[in-house]
């Protein structure tokens, strides 16, 4: 959004500015707490077409190298320590539902446990009246596209 440059220049005196590892200037509100960089971000499930994964020219701050671009409709992204590490989808029938998670890399046992716990929370939210089974696969069985 090229027009936002003017807005940020107008807001600059009221914002905190920092530089990332690549020297890019980042803006934040002045008194927002900055997390310790060594604290891992919690596992989060993002819906399909979430702006955080598709709305940026440079996605390297959230999508690591080697992650395939998947084009199948219906899949969301799973963030592990703030980076895309898997994809997810809810499959429903009249009797039950299955929340499938397909990692793009090998997850540690702690990452798998945290992902499964967050998946159970998501399943309860998406299908509160249905028996949902969480299926955490070893790796994504897909072709990159």
Can you walk through the features of this model?
This protein has helices at residues 4-11, 51-54, 109-126; strands spanning 16-19, 25-28, 44-46, 76-80, 83-92, 96-103, 131-136. By secondary structure, it is α+β, with helices and mostly antiparallel strands. The protein is elongated and about 55 Å long. It starts with a helix and ends in a 9-residue tail after the last strand.
Short structural summary:
By secondary structure, the chain is α+β, with helices and mostly antiparallel strands.
Strand order of the largest sheet: 3-4-5-6-7
Largest sheet: 5 strands, mixed
Work out the helix count. 3
- Class from secondary-structure proportions: alpha+beta
State the order of secondary-structure elements, H for helix, E for strand: HEEEHEEEHE
Count of β-strands? 7
User: In what range is the share of β-strand residues?
Assistant: 25-35%
Rg over CA atoms: 18 Å
Mean pLDDT: 87
Gross morphology is elongated
Termini, distance in Å?
Answer: 27 Å
Low-confidence stretches: none
Query: Helicity, in percent?
Result: 10-25%
Keywords, please?
single chain, 145 residues, alpha+beta, two-stranded antiparallel ribbon
How would you summarize the topology of this molecule?
Layout: H1 4-11, E1 16-19, E2 25-28, E3 44-46, H2 51-54, E4 76-80, E5 83-92, E6 96-103, H3 109-126, E7 131-136
Parallel strand pairs: 6-7
Antiparallel strand pairs: 1-2, 3-4, 4-5, 5-6
């Amino acid at each position: 959004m090229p027009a936002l440059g003017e807005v940020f220049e107008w807001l600059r005196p009221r914002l905190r500015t920092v530089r990332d590892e690549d020297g890019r200037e980042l803006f934040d509100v002045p008194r927002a707490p900055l997390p310790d960089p060594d604290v891992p971000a919690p596992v989060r499930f993002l819906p399909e077409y979430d702006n955080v994964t598709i709305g940026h020219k440079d996605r390297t701050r959230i999508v690591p190298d080697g992650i395939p671009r998947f084009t199948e409709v219906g899949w969301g992204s799973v963030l592990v320590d703030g980076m895309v590490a898997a994809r997810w989808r809810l499959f429903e029938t009249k009797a039950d539902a299955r929340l499938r998670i397909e990692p793009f890399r090998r997850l540690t046992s702690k990452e798998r446990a945290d992902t499964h716990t967050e998946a159970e929370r998501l399943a309860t939210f998406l299908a509160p009246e249905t028996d949902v089974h969480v299926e955490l696969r070893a790796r994504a069985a897909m072709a990159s596209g």
